[in-house]
Write a structure and sequence with these properties.
The protein is mostly beta strands. It contains 1 helix and 4 strands; from the N terminus they run E-E-E-E-H.
């Protein structure tokens, strides 16, 4: 059984440290936030530097 997920659209990656992505999520605000790669779902279009689109993360993390 897969974990519930939350999807954000129009996301762009600004930095990639190997363990986390610094992303800009217009729906949340104008400041970028760090997203651990461990909470990014396999269905996400955003997963590394130079990717953009829909970011799909585990719901438990998005609700924090």
């Amino acid at each position: 059984m897969s974990s519930p997920t939350v999807e954000f659209s129009d996301v762009t990656v600004e930095r990639d440290t190997g363990k986390a992505l610094l992303v800009l999520i217009p729906d949340i605000g104008k400041d970028p936030i760090w997203v651990p790669k461990s909470v990014i779902d396999d269905d996400s279009e955003v997963y590394e530097l130079n990717t953009s689109g829909n970011l799909v993360v585990h719901a438990w993390w998005a609700n924090k």
